[in-house]
Amino acid sequence: MLEIILLLKRYFIENKLFILLKAKQLLTTILFFSILTLSFAQNATIKGIILDEKNNPIEKVSIKTEDNGTETNTNGFYSITIPANKNITIEFTHLSHKKVTSTFNLKNGEELEFNPVMSASIEQIATIIINSNRKKEVEGVITIKPDVIRKIPGANAGVENLLLTLPGVSNNNELSTQYSVRGGNYDENLVYVNGIEVYRPFLVRSGQQEGLSFVNTNLVQNVDFSAGGFQAKYGDKLSSVLDITYKNPYQFEVNADLSLLGGSLSVENISKDSKFTGIVGLRYRDNSLLVNAKETETNFRPTFADAQGFFTYKFSNKFNLSFLGSASINKYNFEPQARQTNFGTLSEPVALLVFYDGQEKDRYQTLFGAFKGSYFANDDLTLHLIASTYHTTEEEYFDILAQYRLGEVNGNIGDENLGEVEFSQGIGSQLNHGRNDLDALITNIEHKGDFKVNDNRFEWSLKYTNEDIRDRLIEWEVIDSAGFSIRPPRTSPNEQPYEPFTGPLEPFQNVRATNNTQINRFQAYAQWSKRSTLGTSDVWYNAGIRAHSWSVSGDDFSTSNQVVFSPRAQFAIKPNWEKDMLFRVAGGLYYQPPFYRELRDRNGVVQPDVKAQKSFHLVLGNDYSFKMWDRPFKLTSEVYYKNLTDVNPYTLENVRIRYRANNSAVAYAYGLDMRLNGEFVPGTESWFSFGYLKTEENINNRGYISRPTDQRLKFAALFQDYVPNMPNLKMYLNLVFNTGLPGGSPSYADPYQYQNRLPSYKRADFGLQYVLVDAKKQFNSGWKKPLKELSFGFEIFNIFDIQNSITNTWVRDVSNKRQIAIPNYLTPRVFNVRTTMKF
């Protein structure tokens, strides 16, 4: 972290890129101090739809506070700004209805949805709303504001980009939207959109192939994230839950976001009778700006595009039906040409030169659709029925010949051959071939219920899933070094030219498998929640249990059946102290029944008897809310411990996971996560995160070694600021520092012999934005009149041009046959231009 701060200071002074930002203000803020003396108004927003007793919207309802006022439109929609951090009384009045009075106390920047029903006969007085986020804090869930997600810069801007600034969440590859949480891998995270589980493509091997995340940030209304100890209502995974809620629109609105990396467009609207709402989003992304900046020269032609829609129709005040749909096409065409990687030391520089022939063509096409019917029987009982289908067809075709030359570099300054390889230590070639096809159809049907009795709340679910997956995997690699074919690992060595070799020629790696697999799952959960008091303290209880039964069948093996039960519980207490403190404890037995990728072993063959990985979780947490500089702050701390059994060991290469599929290990993970968030600058939210993690596994009783996700230390900061004399000029800074992961060794290597760590991952992304139009700056004439928001700016990714690496390329030295690790560097410094607008 100190290294990043010193680099930041030097970069700003030397390049003078940000003369409008006072260096003293920026540096002291990063060191957790602020000396800002100017004070700005702090506001919150309340919006919603006002209905009558027949559930019809009411037009021209007058909404007034002491200092502000507005009225509803033809759809009954309203939005009003109120001062933050104090009690504000709002009156809702209409000639044909009785007055509604309500008092609110909201945090700065908070948005609250309030939908009162106006009666024709009785005056209504609502209760004071003190804090709308308390329920999430009790559950150990972090809530992230959508507007923050859309503003923060990153090579893969979006929800996942923001998650990486949270403690316990890691990813050392900015080209990927995948993430690991508290020692788990990428397959151990649940993702829901409007209560519907969503999936990722299966065959992706590297971050630059991924394209778009499923979540479209322009459609997002709410983001909740739990890093562990989550309730029984969430599914059977070992690490985390990301719970996304898409918008139910209140009015017509258009959002657009354009940059050199692509663009997005969303349109939302509501019918005149307020029964039908819809929001549609289109996205296009071109990663060539990032990939072409890497050291490998390529002809790179990517096409990543998708369309999503969320629609709701209200048949009555008791029943509505919604549809969530998505279609995406990701094409990845890659023709590498040449590469030069310089490494070693100043006194002994070494370089790898590679010349390529061939290409890679990948295609991922996914279709997703889900219907959700909701029946509101009364104020206490709600019933849901969900049916969804996910279909993906994926192709990976590649034939790439790489001819390399490894040697010493001319380091004589002034020499015309400076930087060129003069003495070759290794010469060879490598041919990679792949023909991988996958077709997966996943169908779900689920019933959910929610019933309240006094202070008790009961939730339950029954779910059936059918997974039909057809997969063909053909990959082989041939390596030739100095004219001699390299034998496969763990076979008799080729000692030519010293000894004649008479064995058959074999590929260095060879994976061939064809699988037709069907998995049927039955899942159910029931949980109970209650809010009560213990003496003068408020307490919350939650207890639940999940059951999961599944069977695996296929053409080449008999059916395998298994059942697991997962009990979970949470307890939280808020003492009646002068300081605002909340304590919580959560624990349980968590299972992860194997998904298709976890059933395939290193040779690509499905092993149907793979057991569910099991983990005992214990999480202790504390939230301390306080004021500093008369602004709100919160310090969140959690310590956790996981004991894992029936672990399915794996290797991690870039983002591809290959399992052993034999449950041959036990493991543990423990750590500390801390996050301080608040208004370091008035009117903006920023935070600083720290995480410590240790996770190890014992494979076949050979002893404990670090797991591939053993990310020991993590520091991150997300900082928002603006120029005091120019509040429309805004700055966004995203800092991440992760210590190195175990890895970089060949995928076939024995992990007990290769326990080296990759270098630490250090990255800073910077964005500067000038706001021409926003909620506080509207225009009644001219070309800006139809705009609700408009901003222009630029972003600098990897501002310090740090060479991070995610994997190594292994080549052989001719003289002594040793293997040398050549780092595969990620993206360098990249400049991007961006504009956002709202109509």
List the helices and strands and how they pair.
Elements: H1 2-15, H2 23-30, E1 43-49, E2 51-52, E3 62-64, E4 69-71, E5 77-83, E6 88-94, E7 97-104, E8 111-113, E9 117-118, E10 124-125, H3 134-138, E11 142-144, H4 146-151, H5 159-163, E12 169-170, E13 180-181, E14 189-193, E15 196-197, E16 220-226, E17 240-246, E18 253-259, E19 262-270, E20 276-285, H6 288-291, E21 296-314, E22 319-344, E23 349-376, E24 381-409, E25 421-453, E26 456-481, E27 484-485, E28 509-534, E29 537-554, E30 560-574, E31 580-592, H7 596-599, E32 613-628, E33 631-647, E34 650-653, E35 656-659, E36 665-678, E37 686-699, E38 704-706, E39 713-723, E40 726-738, E41 761-773, E42 789-797, E43 805-812, E44 819-825, E45 830-838
Parallel strand pairs: 1-8, 2-9, 7-10, 14-17
Antiparallel strand pairs: 1-5, 3-4, 3-6, 6-7, 11-16, 12-13, 14-15, 16-17, 18-19, 18-45, 19-20, 20-21, 21-22, 22-23, 23-24, 24-25, 25-26, 26-27, 26-28, 28-29, 29-30, 30-31, 31-32, 32-33, 33-36, 34-35, 36-37, 37-38, 37-39, 39-40, 40-41, 41-42, 42-45, 43-44
